[in-house]
Amino acid sequence: MDIQTRKLNFIQEILEVNSERIIDKLESTLKNEQQKLDPILKEKLTSRALKSNENIREGKVFSRKEAEAKLKERIGI
Predict the structure, then answer these.
(1) Whole-model pTM?
(2) Which of 5, 45, 57, 76 has the fewest CB atoms inside 10 Å of its own CB, making it the most exposed?
(3) 64-76 per-position pLDDT tens digit
């Protein structure tokens, strides 16, 4: 089952919940997990951007065609 289907199923289940206590717990869990992920994601994206800038300064760049060729080589096409 893909992520979109899982999300839709989860939404349908939430719509059937009639307990405010359960909704409170779900909201709390979601907020806590998002707070954990956001700093990690921000750190990873910042790190990748800094590394990309470094590669550009050092001339470690290649064209789209070169990138496609490298990818094809890697996966054996």
Answers:
(1) 0.46
(2) 76
(3) 898 889 888 888 8
* Ordered DSSP codes for 24-62: HHHHHHHHHHHHHHHHHHHHHHHHHHHHHHHHHHTT---
- What's the token pair of residue 33? 């997990």
Average pLDDT over residues 22-39: 88
Question: How is the chain split into domains, by residue range?
Answer: 21-75
The type of residue at 58 is E
CA distances from 58 to 6, 48, 52 (A): 44, 15, 10
Task: Find the range with the poorest average confidence among 17-21, 38-42, 55-59, 60-64.
Answer: 38-42
The residue type at 31: K
Tell me the residue length of the chain. 77
